[in-house]
Amino acid sequence: MAHLFFGYFAGMITITSILVVALRNPVYSALSLLIMFFHVAGLFITLHAEFLAAVQVIVYAGAILVLYLFVVMLLNVNRDDRYHSQWRVVAFVCVPLSIEFLVLLSGTMGAANRQPASLPVEPHTADNTLAIGRTLFSTYLFPFEVASLILLVAMIGAIFLAKRDIGENEAKDVTRVPGAQ
Amino acid sequence: MTVPVSYYIILSAIVFLTGVVGVLIRRNIIAILLSVELMLNATNINFVAFSDHLQDLGGQVFVFFALTVAAAEVAVGLAIIIALHRSRSTINIEEFNLLKW
């Protein structure tokens, strides 16, 4: 049963992630990425990470994808989108990665059979969210604060970058106000 | 009857490779950012699979941090795209060679 679920989710994740790269229209790419996010959330549920599945759906599918679609609609560019002609660079990067992948594949097949969870397995905590919260606010408290700092910096940077030239606008407003009077 | 962890490694390797290929061959900057999201999700799958395999919640906490970084990256990246589109009125990556030597 677990294998069946894993097969379904893995197949859908693979197909939709290939479609993200292969489709020409960015809107279709973003929508297939949405399907992929939902299936990754399903995979998280089968891995007993319910809180992360909910966060995946809310943050990725709810916030990030909407931001992408918003920018795609705002810029209105779904034409003139062809592939690079840099197949040499792609081959140069992907052939070593594929070889490494094959080595990994042949190596982990033996390792996974050899080591069936020899660790002392504690019983699954019933409340995944509670356990994550305890870990996050005790062991990983400082990285959590750093993450909040990253979000603050990203927010300020995004506002500053996307705003039309700030100095000129203020100068224009100053000159416009006496003119209006 | 649990799924062995090597299957998850293979799945995330496939997704990561797809993301790398997408970053390298696409010309649209939005599609490139979507491929970066694919790579981040591949690492997330790996983190959660090992968190379940080793019965350690640290992996799930790190997925949380990766999510934070992904959100920040998307916000800043899309702001850069909007600024670029305002100055050049295109988002084809081959039009931007200002930093090329």
Describe this structure in words.
Chain A has 181 residues and is mainly α. Chain A folds into 2 domains: 1-105, NADH-ubiquinone/plastoquinone oxidoreductase chain 6, subunit NuoJ (Four Helix Bundle (Hemerythrin (Met), subunit A), Up-down Bundle); 140-181. Chain A has 7 helices and no strands. Chain A is extended. Chain B has 101 residues and is mostly helical. Chain B is built from 3 helices and no strands. In chain B, helix 1 runs antiparallel to helix 2 (29-54) and helix 2 packs antiparallel against helix 3. Chain B is elongated. The mean pLDDT of chain B is 88.
Helix-strand makeup class of chain B: mainly alpha
Order of helices and strands of chain A: HHHHHHH
The main sheet of chain A comes to: none
* Parts with pLDDT < 50 across at least 5 consecutive residues of chain B: none
- The percentage helix of chain B is over 70%
Distance between the termini of chain B: 56 Å
Strand content of chain B: under 5%
Radius of gyration of chain B: 17 Å
Main sheet specs of chain B: none
Q: Round the mean pLDDT of chain B to the nearest integer and report it.
A: 88
Q: Any idea what the shape of chain A is?
A: extended
